[in-house]
Amino acid sequence: RRRVRPRAAGGGTGANHEVAGRVSVVSPSMSSRQHYHEQLWACFEAQTWEDKELIVVETFETSPSVFLQQKSKEDPRLVHICFQRPHGRDFSVGLKRDMTLHLASGSAVVNFDDDDIYAENYIAEMVSEMQEKGLVALTLSTWYNYIVPKQVCAYSEPEAWEPWDEDELEEVLYGYGFSYVHKRAFGLMFPYPDVEFAEDAPFLLTFKRVLGADKVGLRRDTKGICMHIVHRANSTGVDGESISHEVSRDELDKLAVASLPVFQQYLDMHATSWWEQLPFSTWRLGFLTPTQ
After folding, report:
1. What is the mean pLDDT of residues 276-288?
2. Averaged pLDDT, 17-28
3. Could you report the per-residue pLDDT of 117-136, keeping only the tens digit for each?
4. Closest CA to 141 of 180, 191, 193, 111
5. Nearest by Cα to 51 from 129, 130, 111, 106
6. Residue 177 CA to its chain's centroid (Å)
7. Rounded Cα–Cα distance for residues 108 and 104 (Å)
8. Are 233 and 13 in contact (CB under 8 A)?
9. 85 pLDDT above the threshold of 90
10. CA distance 118 to 4
11. Burial environment of residue 239 by CB neighbours within 10 A (0 to 12, 13 to 18, 19 or more)
């Protein structure tokens, strides 16, 4: 049974403990994102990879996630660590990402952003490719987006965007943490910077610089194994997300992620516009789904 390990007598976090073949899905979160937690769990539970765990580090002002607290009592694969923080003094996203790596016990780490949706074969596809190619890290270089205010699916292909200089393109190709997969040991050696925004690119580019470009892979997502959700609360904002072309509903239905019940629920939810008038924090998956 997977629980947080007692602190070793000699001190430290216990980060030396690692289970070969186990994948640690890690996700930093906060109380304003609690309405995504059921979706996060559904994506984790759907994964076909057998030996897996979910590590969530959540900060809150008033109360932690009721859903994750209860789920952690029922399922030992979930490690949910909460910190109460005063308003304006939250931990940075980079720090929370680093905390998840110390709490993890898998040899491989897969980032799940709590608002994105991952197909059931996502871990299997990404981790297997990383292992087969002898990589230390892998990330998506093209991806699918669901743009909530526009209610459209769109495809992002940064290398086709103009103009780029080499440094700008590198920042984009390696700078979207929602699709990072890496060996945990190297994440502990080269941690995320303790910053609130844009913590991801420096992390993976350090891998590339120190370990070599041939050790950090890029994968084009042509199967739709991940759906990056673009909404008003994104760090880049809705207008900050560049797209290459829109995806038709017929194309969307053929993507791997489309077979997930949680994604179909998400589409049903956003098929109407009245939900946008509600306070963001009141939305819970399955609670306000409109009837047809």
Report:
1. 43
2. 96
3. 999 999 999 999 999 999 99
4. 180
5. 106
6. 7
7. 9
8. no
9. yes
10. 25
11. exposed
Token representation of residue 167: 């440094």
What is the model's pLDDT at position 5? Answer: 52
Contact 69, 80 (CB under 8 A): yes
Enumerate residues 6+ apart whose C-beta is below 8 A from 11. Answer: none
Residue 161 burial (10 A CB sphere; 0-12, 13-18, 19+):
middle
123: region left, alpha or beta (phi > 0 left; psi from -120 to 50 alpha): alpha
Angstrom distances, CA of residue 288 to CA of 104, 256, 270, 282, 285: 34, 25, 11, 9, 7
Please provide the average confidence, as pLDDT, over all residues in the chain.
87
In the block, tokens 């992390």 appear at: 203
- Reading the block at residue 59, the tokens are 């900060």
φ, ψ dihedrals at 160, nearest 5° = -90, -10
| C-alpha dist (Å) from residue 252 to 139, 142, 148, 228 | 21, 15, 15, 13
